[in-house]
Amino acid sequence: MSYTAKDPEKRPLLALVDQADPPDVATYERGGGFRGLRRVLSGLSPAEVIDEVTKSKLRGRGGAGFSTGMKWSFVPKESQKERKKYIVANGDEMEPGTFKDRLLVEGNPLQLVEGMIISAYAIQASHGVIFLRGEYHLGLERLKIAVEQAKAAGFLGENILGSGFDFELIVHPSGGRYICGEETALLTALEGRRANPRTKPPFPQVSGLWGAPTVVNNIETFSNIPHIMANGIDWYLGLSACGDGGTKLYGVSGRAKRPGVYELPLGTRMGILLEECAGGMQDGYRLRAFLPGGASTAFLGAEHADIVLDYPTPEKAGSRLGTGLAILLDDRASPIGMIRNLEHFFAQESCGWCTPCRDGLPWVEKLLIDIEEGRGGPDDILRLQDACRLIGPMGRTFCAHAPGAIAPLESGLRLFREDFERAVQGGGAVVPSAQERAA
């Protein structure tokens, strides 16, 4: 079985992805593109679109996993003529180890454009923004071309396909901060201000961009919408291997033979992703643990190497599905070094607004550096545990940046306790010997 074969029936998201030459409007339509939009604008009401998306059981693919249809249902129901509303694609893909949205915007940007037009119609938004990671230069260029092509073909602008529905879409590159991926910080950045998260409530669906009702969804989430509206609820539910709908872009990075992104049924087992898609571990390396969905998820040990990658199962095991792109820790790498590297990233990417995050994360990084380099003591492990207790719980800070940063640390202290204790007893972090690896 090939996991890279183009198959619009089983792998709709990647079926038309072509990184060398992404489809133009004509090619996209020949491949089934804009069928969903034509169906929607030929007679479905906005409420009917929201109802179908809700029944499809599409959950947000950016990490939180909230029901997409339910999120849309919170938006006030006035028409676009009566009230200004916005729709925003969150493409600020800066989570370490996550690179699935890049593949979509570089390989088939029109799929995202169509998904946003349908979504805008559902909530009656008149304007949309694709907020893209600043380093995705090729994706930015191709998205701008796709928007212009869609406009020239009558899929954007005034009176789309003669429906009376108007929608304008622009592409906006991020200034380059991880916190811009937090939806309220993203909206603040779009308003031209420092990207600090906002308190919630009010939620963006009620008061978002410039105070208007706004829906923010991930790029992969929007890319699912055309296929749901073109092929129906039952087809979409049938793609999944679990209780929620659709496929998922999973991925692997680290010492795998074929690291990359793979479109698989939602609820696929980790063993299929790692062993059959990614080819297993490289020769001479063994899996010690992994972060199942990006840097802000908790470590799972090798005993979970065949865990079901749906939304509830990783939570029961103590982690999260997150973005669905796993980062592997092999038996030749120092877990302390990996955690220190992650905490360095989170410390430098704090927006600086909340004290536990701004001051706590650099302190955590310093403790880890001392332990890694052999200057730490047994009390430093206790201090790290205190940091987990004080910084980690939700509600201590405005947003989930600090809790996400603490997840790999707290789980790492549990899973790799012997490594930490040996490091503070003298010599710092060491890479396991061949004899230890064979044991």
From TrEMBL:
Keywords: 4Fe-4S, Iron, Iron-sulfur, Metal-binding
Keyword Nucleus: no
Gene3D superfamilies (alphabetical): 3.10.20.600, 6.10.250.1450, NADH-ubiquinone oxidoreductase 51kDa subunit, NADH-ubiquinone oxidoreductase 51kDa subunit, iron-sulphur binding domain
Name the UniProt record assigns to this protein: NADH-quinone oxidoreductase subunit F
Required cofactor(s): [4Fe-4S] cluster; FMN
Gene Ontology molecular functions: 4 iron, 4 sulfur cluster binding; FMN binding; metal ion binding; NADH dehydrogenase (ubiquinone) activity
Family recorded in the similarity comment: Belongs to the complex I 51 kDa subunit family.
Pfam families, per database record: Complex1_51K, NADH_4Fe-4S, SLBB
Species name: Neoasaia chiangmaiensis
Classification via PROSITE patterns: COMPLEX1_51K_2 (PS00645)
Highest taxon, organism lineage: Bacteria
